[in-house]
Amino acid sequence: MSFSGFVRDRYLLSAGLLVLLAVVVLWPYRHFAGDDAYITFRFAHNFATGAGFAFNPGVATYGSTAPLWVFLIVGFNWLGLDIPDAAHALNWIFAVADVVLFFHLASRYLGKGAAAWIATLLLIIDPWFIRWALSGMENAFALFLLMGTLLAQLHWRNSGRISWLAPIFAALAGLCRPEMVLLGGLLGLDMLLLERRRLLANLLTAVLVYLAIFVPWVWYAFTVFHSPVPNTITAKISADHFLALTRVMLYFGSFWVFEALAVLAVCLIGPLRRAAVARFQGDWTIWLLPVAWALVLPAFYVAGGAPVAGRYMMFGLPCYLLIGVAAWAVVWERFPKVVIAAGLATLALVFGVQYRYCWYITRWPQGMDPKMIEAAQTLSQISKSTDVVAADQIGVLGYFSQRPVLDIYGLASPEILPYKKISEQAVWKYVRERRVQYLFVINTVEQLTQMDPAYASLTLVRPVPVQREGANAAGEPTTYYLYRTNWEPGG
How far apart are CA 394 and CA 375, in angstroms? Predict the structure, then answer.
């Protein structure tokens, strides 16, 4: 066997072993599907059955921020899989692809050695990759598109050929997640600053690709939703930038503490800084796109006051791992024992976070607390098909009850959003004016009555102690109340 063949076979064996490890690590989470996943499932179900891009059949709304993911689920549903199974099958495909792509990406950035292995292992055991990769959501697909963009641009930049694949990946990423529209801008910046051979041709190609992919959806969004902006963005944007910053820092604190210290050391300590320059001076340009994305993503959330953490910040995970392990590689040359200690501490950190904030969701055979599903089925049994339920947890409730839902949070019901800007009392007054037949909320009758005396007439159907799936709710069940409203229509 030639040396090149040996290297290739060893590389393929390494990738195969990493994929096998990822399957073992992810397997306990194979059933997980959070409430947001069931929101997506209902959009997919309605679209597949001809009821439109809608949460409530026939009422079109931009309540899913991942239209491309909805369409992929529908495609697999047409192949014979039911909606949740279609989503999970896609999750497995893209989770495995993510491990392979990241190992290749790490080998390009960090060399075909221990550093690439370590970075990929950190991806596989990252608490938020484990939690969200098989969640029925678009996370694994979004990471696939991000890494596809990075690899394609790395391969074609200054090759003398037109880079058409990177714009395709980046444009599709923008239809997968709204914040990933920013990736297209960074790709253009990368071309402007670093492309030396076919700049105009590459820029023109990128523009044409984006127009071809985005114009049909933007036209549809304007025509049907009367806005190209998802309801989620409108609902989550706020002026509380400090809270958003706190959530972002909590995300980094869950896995990246010791890599961040290494990055800080490389930036501030002269000998380490010079070692980094010597190590990367020949190919420093390849770092522009991942570093820019690593900075822009959290800045976007903080600027918008969006209090997001693991599920959303995970879209930058490959870049954070590349940067952190690259810093470790620099520190290793002078202080190997420090890096070993940091690595062990990182393992303890990520396994501790996983055990505390992720492991409990593995107990649920349908991805959510069975009590929540039972409450939705109860609603289906006691209500008419036209009865409307107002709720702030709408995914499982809507999917399993198949009842129209008024979303108090505003994701599927944008008509709520103007009232949210006024006050909580204004929201509940609007709910009463809509004369919904049921409520599924965390508020007691006394709390609701303080905001509007009309709520004193509510009849409690049943309290439902639910373990929410969000990491912030780990180990702290929340009691929901299913009420019948007893309001006369138009009264």
Answer: 12
Q: Domain of residue 447: give its range.
A: 370-484
In a domain, 340, yes or no: yes
Q: Is the pLDDT of residue 6 over 60?
A: no
Distance from C-alpha of 137 to C-alpha of 140, rounded to nearest angstrom: 8
Of 121, 143, 57, 488, nearest in space to 316 by CA: 143
pLDDT of residue 14: 87
The most distant pair of C-alpha atoms in the chain lies apart, rounded to whole Å, by: 84
| Residue 489 forms part of a structural domain | no
Asked whether residue 472 is assigned to any structural domain, the reply reads: yes
Mean pLDDT, rounded, for 211-235: 91
Contacts made by residues 372-377, CB under 8 angstroms, sequence distance 24+: 372/35, 372/396, 372/397, 372/464, 372/466, 372/480, 373/400, 374/464, 375/440, 375/462, 375/464, 375/466, 375/480, 375/482, 376/400, 376/401, 377/401
Nearest residue to 99 (alpha-carbon basis) of 26, 168, 35, 1: 26
Q: How many CB atoms lie within 10 A of CB 219?
A: 11
pTM of this prediction exceeds 0.90: yes
Is residue 109 within 8 Å of residue 326, measured between CB atoms? yes
Distance CA 323, CA 292 (A): 11
Residue 124: both structure tokens together: 């596989």
Task: Based on the fold, state whether residues 379 and 344 are members of the same structural domain.
Answer: no
Sign of the Cα torsion 386, 389, 390, 396 reads negative
Are 348 and 385 part of one and the same domain?
no
Q: Are 406 and 388 in contact (CB under 8 A)?
A: yes
Across 69-73, 237-241, 369-373, 387-391, least confident range: 237-241
CB proximity list for 104: less than 8 A, separation 6 or greater: 15, 151
Distances (CA, A) of 350 to 131, 249, 252: 12, 15, 11
142, 211, 251, 278 from 66: Cα distances, Å: 10, 18, 22, 42
